[in-house]
């Protein structure tokens, strides 16, 4: 779902003839310790080139080296309508770069003997169950943190969900796995949300309170938070943008009803600044120390950076990267001959990327306010600069991959000349799944609309009993209605998780 959307957006940007909204703005004094004037100009020009190519409204970039901030600067606008510039203290929402904070939280509790990384999770959370009984009994915090529980993403369970986190955890048992426990790497946000619930149950305080008190506060990350209310209360925060035709449209932020997006979410809700992220990178590169003082016990940082699970990889497709693995909240690999610890994040049209080179004692953070591969591209470009490597045109490389991926994407053949077997009114009603929640199907003006988790999807007839989402983030996704022995519409099947069979929503009695 996310990948397909991502490719469409990128292709529009690449092939369109859209005008770019300027982002150059007056710059405040910037730390440039240890960098020559030539190096600073190169960092700026390289950053500006990537932002221009991918039409990004605003970005914040930071470098650390040998325990100090050596470059920290904002580019472009955090609010296009008001003309407000991005600065190093502008807040962005991280997305999955949050996972490293959650892994450290578990590690800190492990250091207090409140959690054992390798003890069955059900020991601490009796309500934790997966559909696979063996995985339910044996999955550990390490398995969840390394994305190897056997459960694929199932992202629509949590996306814009009105569920409480405890209810979401109890619903995991209703989700089909695609692999056995520890058989394969399968990225899964639900498991990190569950780890946040584990932190709450073992620490006795909510995950976000633990992050604030045990990580942000001792580290001096004073411009950081975990929820949307904290984000909008910040002195300066960025709006995120989606390209619509020749304009940039600001994306609205979640509302209180969207509990798992509005509140604290251990998989991706941290909001922060490039300035605060520089402190985070320094403590990561110095095993828990900053400014000559210990912030976290020795070894707790390093254990999160140890590879745990190989990630599928093709040397032909990505020759600059060797031996990619997932650690605990971090990815690891060898990037152009240099050991790398890194992670990206994407949520609510914000993108982030953090790259650490432990042997070079160097880190790079990129925060942008548009959903785009530009954060990853810029992190690679700046990494090449700081490591003194021969430049690669990473934008061109990504463009080529996007085009190749769209060309290879199979197209389902539509059977012409068919018609729905029922009147449209007979499809209307509420359909429920114990983990995914409710889909409500409405009919108006001769058209069906599906409503779930705050999304409204106009449906068009595809063939037989299948309808297709006509527009929006899930465009092209099909919903197929199923009948009971009486010929009544009783269920709707949706391919929300491509790694398993269609998700079946059953019609609620009387709906």
Distance between the termini: 29 Å
SS content category: alpha+beta
Strand order of the largest sheet: 3-2-1-15-14-13-12-11-10
General form: globular
Write down the Rg: 23 Å
- Major beta sheet, specifics? 9 strands, antiparallel
The CATH topology of the largest domain, please? Answer: Beta-lactamase
Low-confidence stretches: 1-29
Q: Can you say what the CATH homologous superfamily of the largest domain is?
A: DD-peptidase/beta-lactamase superfamily
CATH classification, class level of the largest domain: Alpha Beta
**Helical percentage:** 25-40%
Number of helix segments? 14
How many structural domains?
2
Total strand segments: 23
Per DSSP, what share of the residues sits in E-state strands of 2 or more residues? 15-25%
CATH-defined architecture of the largest domain? 3-Layer(aba) Sandwich
| Oligomer classification | single chain
Mean pLDDT: 92
